[in-house]
Amino acid sequence: MVGIQVAVAGASGYAGGELLRLLAGHPELEVVAATAYEQAGKRVGEVHPQLVTLADLVLQPTNVDVLGAADLVFLALPHGQSAALAAQLPEQTAIVDLGADFRLADADAWQRYYGGEHAGTWTYGLPELPGQRSAIAASKRIANTGCYAVATILALAPLIAAGIASPQDVVVVAASGTSGAGRSAKARLLGSEVMGDLSPYKVGAHQHVPEIKQASRAKTLSLTPLLAPMPRGLLSTVTAQPTKNVTAADVREVLQDAYGTEPFVHVLPEGQMPHTAATFGSNSAHLQGTVDIDSGRIIVVSAIDNLGKGAAGQAVQDANIVLGLAETAGLPINGVAP
């Protein structure tokens, strides 16, 4: 049986390859086109040898003629490249953009963190936020989340919404695997540079800060991103000032109330901390909350697979909602270990 037809632009990258992997096992979606720029003309199997069932699919040039026949298009392109292509696609074509082009509502924030012209704002693709699932279902243009953003928002947004954490002076330290920096060759991402090292980057000016603030309602937020010596995975440690005396049990109760019925967000048992390997290959987020016994600050630790819930998995989850399919269709909840 022919499924709903989907296409992937930017299929040669890490996020694009993960999209193809998830789509290859999806019960309702059929990949009818995959496109690339420099890798156009190659077989998928040459670029992503792990994708055996899609190995003979040829990567085509990225243009509207190739993509426009699909019912839904995933744009897994570098930031700033989605808007021009999206504007050429038919109005009836549903689009999930994995880039940042349409995430921000504030044009000044776009200019400050990304530069260039602000393309506009699409429906934000994080269904676990209150009211967002219905907004996604009613839309055909979805702005997928950033990887640091989704891990941090899931940890922070319920605390601010419940009134137990101040939206001021939020501090986040988060470490991500190297796949989060994309597949383009960069000296700082060579194995010899990364292995045995842990290094900060974009300190004080990471582009996911305005996205996190917009979705979580934080007012001031400091994010220190770290490059971890691993291919994939992301661990975000979020600390916030309490608005009143709270206990670890209070923090956990707020998180449980927010995510108790969510299929992909899991508040771990008391005393069990998240770690990235447990989310490997899944679309799940693992959370744990506590209170620092010295400072009294609330601490929530969040682990995801940056290519899963932080990119391709989240995009398929959004596509499922847009297309009226089961939200969990084609998406692993369990991780792969060791």
UniProtKB/TrEMBL annotation:
Which of UniProt's keywords are assigned here? Amino-acid biosynthesis, Arginine biosynthesis, Cytoplasm, NADP, Oxidoreductase
- The gene designation is argC_2
Q: Is Amino-acid biosynthesis given among the entry's keywords?
A: yes
> Where does it primarily localize?
cytoplasm
Q: What does this protein do?
A: Catalyzes the NADPH-dependent reduction of N-acetyl-5-glutamyl phosphate to yield N-acetyl-L-glutamate 5-semialdehyde.
Q: Enzyme group, top EC level?
A: oxidoreductase
Q: Indicate where this protein resides in the cell.
A: Cytoplasm
The UniProt entry, under InterPro entries, shows:
AGPR, AGPR_dimerisation_dom, AGPR_type-1, NAD(P)-bd_dom_sf, Semialdehyde_DH_NAD-bd
**What HAMAP family does the annotation carry?**
ArgC_type1
Pathway(s) it belongs to: Amino-acid biosynthesis; L-arginine biosynthesis; N(2)-acetyl-L-ornithine from L-glutamate: step 3/4
Q: Which Pfam families match?
A: Semialdhyde_dh (PF01118), Semialdhyde_dhC_1 (PF22698)
**Lineage of origin:** Bacteria, Bacillati, Actinomycetota, Actinomycetes, Mycobacteriales
- Recorded superkingdom: Bacteria
Show where the Semialdehyde dehydrogenase NAD-binding domain sits: 5-137
Has keyword Heme? Answer: no
Q: Where is the active site?
A: 147
Protein name (record): N-acetyl-gamma-glutamyl-phosphate reductase
What protein family is recorded? Answer: Belongs to the NAGSA dehydrogenase family. Type 1 subfamily.
Q: What is the species listed in this Swiss-Prot or TrEMBL entry?
A: Fodinicola feengrottensis
User: What catalytic activity does the UniProt entry give for this protein?
Assistant: N-acetyl-L-glutamate 5-semialdehyde + phosphate + NADP(+) = N-acetyl-L-glutamyl 5-phosphate + NADPH + H(+)
The protein's Enzyme Commission number? 1.2.1.38
